[in-house]
Every structure is written in C-alpha cells, then in structure tokens.
Amino acid sequence: MIQPLQGIRVVDLSRAIAGPYCTALLADMGAEIIKVESINGGDSARAWPPFENEHSLYFESLNRSKRSICIDFYSPEGRDILDRLIEGADVLVENFKLGTLDKLGLTTEHLAELNPDLIVASVTGFGSTGPLKDDPGLDQVVQGMSGLMSVTGPPGGSFRVGVSIVDITSGMVSAFGIVSALLGRARGGAISRVSTSLLETGMNLSVFQGQRALSLGVAPTAQGNNHPTITPYGTFRTATEPINIAVGNEKQWRAFCALLGMPDTADDPRFRTGPLRTANRGELTGILESVLSTKPAAEWVPLITEADIPCGPIYDYTQAFESEQIAALGLVQEVQRQDGSRLPLVRGPLSVNGLASEIHSPPPLLGEHTAQILRELGITGEAIERLEAAGRVKVDERTTAARR
Fold first, then answer.
1. Distances from the Cα of 387 to the Cα of 76, 86, 394, 401, angstroms
2. Which InterPro entries does the entry mention (predicted)?
3. What's the confidence (pLDDT) of residue 403?
4. Could you give the number of structural domains in the chain?
5. Which of 23, 48, 57, 246 could form a cystine bridge with 12, CB 3.0-4.6 A?
C-alpha cells in the first residue's frame, strides 16, 4: 500500500485510548510512531485486562506498528532524551490532563525553541477553557455529560455504548486534525497546535439528536433498537433470531410491503408517510413481525437484501470475525510477538488506491526499542547502560542485542 505519511515522525506521549488510537491510525498510513512511556509502568493500558498470558490485549488492540522507548520523564537525563526526540519530530501527540506538558518542562515556548515546525496535538477531557478545563475526563463520564447515554438503551434507560466510543472518535478527530495541520504546513500555513476534547467530540456525535434539542427544545429519549425518527428501521423478530432491517425511504417501504405479501399496508392511512409510521410504530411493528415470524432469519436476510433494503443478522464479535465479508476484506492480520506467540489484530479501516492498510509490526513491549532509539540519537551502548543502571531508562531484557 502507498503510505502517504511515510517520512513523518510522531513523538507519542499519549496513553489509554484516545491518543493511542490516533497514533495507530497515523501508523497505518506510514508515519513513524515513537511511543515514549514512563519508566513507572508505561502506558496505563498495559495493566488493563483482558490478558493473554502476560500480554494486555487492551493495550495490544491500540498500539500496532509503533516503537516504545521507556524513560524517566522527570529526570534531567529523561528530559534531555525527550527534547532530542522532539527536535527531530514532525508531530507531538499527548492526551494528558491540561497543564501536564508544562510540568514536564514542555511549555509552548520551549517546544518552539526545540522545533519551530512542530505540530502539537492534544486531547483533553473538557477542553482548554471553561469551569471544567482542569477536571479529569474519561469516556463513560463524558458519554453521560454529552447526552449520549440518554439516547442509548431501552426506553426509559440510560446506557453507555458498549465500546469507548468517545475515546475512539476523539482519536479519529485528532488524527484528522494532525493530517489537516500537516497539509496546511506543507502549503505554508503557520500551524503549531491542534486540539480536541472528549466533550467536544461527544457533543459532535449528537448530530440530528442534538439538533432536535437545539432547534425544538425537545430532549430526545432512548428508543432501544429502533431508529429514533425513521420507521420501520430497527430490530425485528423472526421465526428464529432477530434481524436488523432499515427501510429508509418510500421506495423501500413499498418494496418491503410487497415482499412481505401485504402491499395494501403501504397505503394504510396509519402508515402512509414516514412521520405517521413513526407515530404508529407499535402497531406497525406488530403487523410486520406477524409476517416476519413465519420464516427463519437465514431466509429473510437474503430476500430482503435482494430487494435493495438494508438488512443483516446480529452477530456477537466471534461471529463477526468468522463472517465471509470480514475475511474477504482481510480485516484481521496476524503478527508475531517478540516471544513468538501469535497475535491476530484488526487492521486499520482505510484503503489507499484500493489497497488496504497493513500492520507493520506487533505492539511493542515496554521499552522494547529504547536502546535502538537512543542509538539513533547518537548515544553509545556504554552510555545507555549507564542510563539504565541509574534508572533513567528501561531497556526490555529481551532486546539487549539492540545495545550493541
């Protein structure tokens, strides 16, 4: 695959999800990611389950195609190493609490002195201004504060989305900001900082639901597996397991009624228009499921799909990974950890010129590339050993050959 970001070096100070997801996307496109981790355990996600033996699958799912250097951030030697890395970087990524960069000595002025062309990308919890700017922010807290939980789950409930959706999308937004800044810089723009926050991203996920509240003063509520405004669009019972059906326009509505053998329903006064169908959703669902329950899901899905109506089964993740479409897309790629164990990973979601992104290397061990990166900075093997002995850097024992 063409790697449009090849030659771009990113110093990655981030941890947990939002920042690492951002830099994983950049790595997919060919950027060199140097993951700088604290000597006090590294990225916090390394300690989060689920585990496969000693390997955190949580961490590994987010840190493909990166190199890890492990240093003491607060020692003079560690800060010197960090300065030298930043001097040769195009981008610095961080998702610390507001003000942490300054505590590390990486003030705006110092960064500008080190590297006038550096782009700093930040993800915070609540942004850089306002009464909450200094508060810690985590995905579920922001899911609640952004309104997202209020529209998730069955009617009357408030449920978190089953993945850390605000963290993940904040990482996507940050990656977009970085690429935009790189393009702007290449065109002569003086761009030095891009930032987003979990709250800003979470609010942007509201789209038409948020617009309803803004324009009409009406707070939308949870609708379970039904689309909040379009009907029939949701989960429906069959003779076996439920399926998802999405009837999105009048043409599909008439085709759906014909397919179910009830063409007159298309012109029933209760269901003649989209708003009427939504207003009378309960009655309509009962009528539709009385027909859908006569055949198993495995028969309905191809019939409905062939009628150009979006439809599909409801898989758990194991079933999803076993599907023919996932295999055809090559979404799962296998790498080998340094200990020789096999690690299947989901590749990035982008393709360039029809070729899918690739995983270039397995997620790094803590400090796996410390010696290698220090040597690239011109530090000798003896000096690396002294730094390690003094507790200023960590070199993974399984990579001692890199010292030489």
1. 11, 19, 8, 16
2. CoA-transferase_III_domain, CoA-Trfase_fam_III, CoA-Trfase_III_dom3_sf, CoA-Trfase_III_dom_1_sf
3. 44
4. 2
5. 23
